[in-house]
Design brief:
- Helices cover 44% and strands 18% of the residues.
- It is built from 10 helices and 9 strands.
- The longest helix is centred in the first third of the chain and has 24 residues.
- The mean pLDDT is 90.
């Protein structure tokens, strides 16, 4: 069954993106009104995050989110056949020079992002790095092995590498010992497991457990930390801005890097909430 689905997706993604958006437009009412994919999760997340908004305002955000959710699916699949020139044209990397400067000076970089706008296309960062340096996409293995293989293939398309979360520390230690430099891409807005929810903060009006891995690793190795803001210009076109969170992590106070990340992300979501992944069960743990 997966081979059939993969074959259909592979054929579909040869279509021009403008035609794939027609498929997205058709899929939206099916996903939203008929399948009702995680509608209760999205509705609850929005109600708790924006209590000051009316039900009508939140419903508008909800609909825009599901429409964009369909867009990001076809955009992700379209990446199968995108050339390097096309993704750099559609995914403008903006002020990437500080990242390259750090790498050329022999410093690895921790690059923090979130499930906001098209985070999958952010693997294009590999294309602006010096030849000997790689973008390591940090990921957690998916339960479906075949789908996991598909996503790994997409994420390494533009010369990047995939590093499983559980192997990250060992990989970083080995690379440092070998004098190798890289950029480590961290999607840091996921919910920690119950046992690892050691730090809580207020995020979108809610008590929220936060992953501390990026900050801990940045301090351990003293690697500069940047946030990549992805702004959707129009359908199929994005522009990035790289913001330095800390250039000297060992000099920062406890949770300073994590708090800065969460504050930047919160402002980003508030400015255009439809582009965040509201279907994720972000607040599944309670703070006792």
């Amino acid at each position: 069954m997966f081979k059939v689905l993969y074959g259909l997706l592979w054929l579909m993604t040869w279509l021009p993106l403008r035609l794939l958006y027609i498929i997205s437009d058709i899929s939206y009412p099916i996903i939203y009104y008929i399948v009702r994919y995680r509608r209760n999760v999205v509705k609850t997340n929005l109600a708790k995050s924006f209590p000051e908004k009316s039900e009508k305002e939140r419903r508008n955000i909800e609909r825009r989110f599901y429409h964009y959710f369909c867009d990001i699916f076809v955009e992700t699949m379209y990446e199968m056949h995108m050339s390097k020139n096309e993704i750099l044209r559609r995914f403008n990397l903006g002020n990437y020079e500080p990242i390259v400067e750090q790498v050329r000076n022999g410093k690895s970089v921790m690059l923090m992002t979130a499930h906001y706008c098209n985070w999958e296309w952010a693997s294009a960062v590999s294309l602006i790095l010096p030849t000997d340096n790689k973008m390591h996409n940090i990921y957690k293995k998916l339960r479906n092995k075949k789908f996991d293989t598909l996503m790994l293939e997409l994420r390494s398309k533009f010369t990047g590498k995939n590093t499983e979360k559980k192997d990250l520390l060992r990989t970083m230690v080995n690379m440092k010992n070998e004098g190798k430099v890289a950029v480590f891409g961290m999607i840091a807005d996921q919910s920690p497991t119950g046992k690892s929810a050691h730090y809580w903060t207020t995020f979108l009006n809610q008590d929220t457990p936060v992953l501390l891995g990026t900050e801990q690793l940045a301090k351990k190795f003293n690697y500069p930390v940047f946030y990549i803001h992805i702004n959707r210009i129009k359908r199929g076109y994005y522009k990035c801005e790289f913001h330095a969170i800390s250039l000297e992590p060992t000099l920062t106070a406890g949770h300073e890097i994590t708090d800065a990340y969460m504050q930047i992300l919160e402002k980003e979501i508030e400015s255009a909430p439809e582009f965040w992944l509201w279907s994720h069960k972000r607040w599944k743990h309670s703070h006792n």
